[in-house]
Amino acid sequence: MSVIGELIKKAIDVTGFIRGDAKPIEEQEKVLRILLEKAKLTAFGKHFKFSELLEEPSVILAFQKNVPVHDYDKMFNDWWHYLLKGHQNVTWPGGQNYFALSSGTTSNSKYIPVTDDMLDSIKKAGIQQVLSLKNFDLPGDFFEKQIMMLGSSTQLIQKDDHEEGEISGISASNIPVWFKSFYKPGEEIASIKDWDQKLQRIVEEAPKWDIGSLSGIPSWVEMMLKAIIKHHNLKNIHDIWPNLQVYTTGGVAFEPYLHSFEKLLARPIIYIDTYLASEGFLAMQRRPDTNFMALNTDNGVFFEFVPFIDENIDENGCVKDNAEILAFADAQENENYVLLISTVSGAWRYMIGDTVMITNKQLAEIKITGRTKHYLNVVGSQLSVHQMNKAIEELAKTYKIDIKEFVVSAIHKGDDYIHKWLLGANEIKDDLDEIASKLDELLKENNKNYAVARGKALKGVEVEIFTVDKFYKWSEEKKNLGGQAKIPRVLKEEEFLEFQDYMR
């Protein structure tokens, strides 16, 4: 066994830890005080009197009372648009060298500032993730193996005073010098913008690498592994990367990919979930006996939780002005919340768009349950993406097919509404009425509101199945192929009908 790897593992044993001794409530108040103190002389901080908030008996309550909730449009229109014009000290001290382009389902239309403090926060979270690997009982030589990080291009768009790109590309272009010898596919290949060209280079170079862990969006990682196996005529990926032991996933639910992913392996590997958004590195799985993620409660992000109920959320999936909003101290386990964040990039009470559930408050562990805008409630069905994923997984097991992607909408059929599902699978089935009926049954079992809606305004369920390649072809034509791109789960009727026409 490698001496160097054992030394690295022992160093991690000294510094790595499971955060059983963490104090997330105290950490969160400290983080908020640091954020307010550092930003008090910015335009935003002066406007909302951060200096005065810091003098209040409860800084959290004062902050919540005086600073409004922002979605991206409000944050950009009121404040961030000045940053693109070169202004500084707007919502965070100084300026920023980067803007993260969000992975929108229809376009890269959002510009998220990425400050030096945010890059430091992401690096710190990455180090914490490495340290937590000691909890997974990996052998010493694992810590000498290379890490394949399949992300967006590191060749960023150069503007007058900043660069633009997806957060995975920005992060990869700022990796520490000491990490570069471990990092694959390497700087040259990572900078390639064209997905097909990048994939071809990875396939060609794959035999030269000794990969111990993978990270990236499941659909694109799976596509990469299949291409390598096919090109080199392998039985599985372990034929070429025998030391592969860890896959770090994130961005979308991994469960729909698990069955087909494991077909590409010779033996089981460890799956570790992470929560890296354009706005920051928010959470990571820190221990092996759960697939839930621990919030980074001491690393430049202040979290708030909005109960995900009709009284708090409008028809566009945004938080209402009079919504009940809780700090971590007051949030409860096993309740569905819309997540708000305030960060070292100058996002303030910012609705990131995800819904989460706290699964272990002592360890600050959560699971992502869906997206606010991917919440289907046109006719009172109140379906979350979490419930949709669960039903699709059961459907796939019942009919023994791999369903990798789906898009759903409430659409008109005559004067009535139906739910129309487009499924992306490994094979086409003919018994669509039976499949639709089974999906309807599963959703009724999982959601009483859906069952009620099916007896009233929601008059039917229809399903069409397409090869999953068509979904990825659509994504490619939308310039979202590879990196952190995601297929939308819920679309409004007009967008859905356009998508359906394309698939047909």
TrEMBL record:
Enumerate the Pfam families for this protein: GH3 (PF03321), GH3_C (PF23572), GH3_M (PF23571)
Which domain of life, per UniProt?
Bacteria
Sorted alphabetically, which InterPro entries does this protein's record hold? Answer: GH3 (IPR004993), GH3_C (IPR055378), GH3_M (IPR055377)
User: Matching PANTHER family, A to Z?
Assistant: GH3 DOMAIN-CONTAINING PROTEIN
Record-annotated GH3 middle domain positions: 297-365
Q: Where is the GH3 C-terminal domain?
A: 387-494
The molecule here is called: GH3 auxin-responsive promoter family protein
